[in-house]
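Q: Here's a chain of 506 amino acids. Please give me its 3D structure as tokens.
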Amino acid sequence: MGEKKKKQPKLKARLPRGFVDRSPADIRATDEMVASIRDVFELYGFDPVETPMFEYTDALGKFLPDSDRPNEGVFSLTDDDDQWMSLRYDLTAPLARHVAENFNDIQLPYRTYRAGWVFRNEKPGPGRFRQFMQFDADTVGAPGVQADAEMCMMMADTMEALGIVRGDYVIRVNNRKVLDGVMEAIGIGGAEHAETRLTVLRAIDKLDKFGTDGVRLLLGEGRKDESGDFTKGAGLDDASVERVIGFVSAGGANGAQTIDNLRDVVAVDSASGSGGIGELEQIANLVAAAGYDDGRVKIDPSVVRGLEYYTGPVYEAELLFDVTNEKGQTVQFGSVGGGGRYDGLVSRFMGQPVPATGFSIGVSRLMTALKNLGKLGRDEIAAPVVVCVMDRDAESMSRYQRFVSELRSAGVRAEMFQGNPKNFGKQLQYADRRGSPVAIIQGSQERDEGTVQIKDLIEGKRLSGEIEDNAAWRASRPAQYSVKETDFVTEVKKLLAAQAEDRKAG
């Protein structure tokens, strides 16, 4: 006898770490939110553009701050011609490649927006995913800080278009040139100090999380957390640490006072620092002229942004309302997007200066915020009307298909039951689990009479829980009734409208 064939092991279904499956509710909420953002960006005169998810690795450049992960924090592979390609880690680096490649055909300033998935090869954790969606707007070819000021004001308008009220958000603005001036003042200005500067940036970026004392440790020898893990610091001496702390703490009651404070902190002989302060002053003036200096847009020296390619103004959209984090602590929701000027990114391809500035919204994170505020999913799409299958002969099936088509032509979501139709109860059970508002029923008797039965599944569910005697049943809105076949679409639309009114009233 032949050997018994080995049974193949069953494949285990498992989602990769750091990735999520998205539900219909999440997808629709995202679509709703993205549509609102798009409306604001279009109002400002921006047009859409789309780039692929893969780029050649050298085109993306090594700008991620996460240096302790493989492939510099990106997912990479080799093409069949041995060229390295990577999944994009943001939407800005691919735009720079697109602009450079199509430079002669592009009208400058080039004002675009795009939404898309980006990928980070990072260690997954609570609220930290390897795939997430961003929505960006960029202006390429505009050297003046009015383009940066516009980005900040557009972000304020976007927050309000999404239902986030004034006072629950702030757009915070800083300038990397000012920070460079501080770096020069403490002796870490040259290319040989690039790694130290990056460590300083990371430390400042932790201000909200660890406070001034925690940042002071990270700027010095390092910081040990509650679990005993030690994070090596930037190794600055005490005087340099205090200079950096003075810089990030320079925020005043208004833009003018903050700028005065910065002039005291930044070296007077630093061309970079003085230029950056001048740019912040211009932004403050433009914001004030447009009326956005009422707490919506604020000069804040603690904003640094993690990516290394920023060269001038940087900005961040922060939500100020409280939420409970995964540890049960009450904290401010925090950043939902940011950006800045990246004048060197397109220039890498061009051999000539090409100024650019842009803003990126973290779509998934912002969607979480809007859910917390109850601003999403208010207009949920109703489940489809289900046309039941009572008879399976060809003529009846054609009639049911016609019913479905007539409903769809009238703009009503509808489907014909496509499971096993033997048990009618199972069809109603399916419709109920689907959340369907209405079932359409036509057996042989109704067919001969030229009628259909309309079953109000919402009312039926309510009645089954409330009706205790036949008198009450007869006095209520009937959960099932007969209408002429020629009138059934009109009657279904009336019923759906009545259900919608009931939901509003409830």
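Q: Can you summarize the key feature?
A: The chain has a mean pLDDT of 88.
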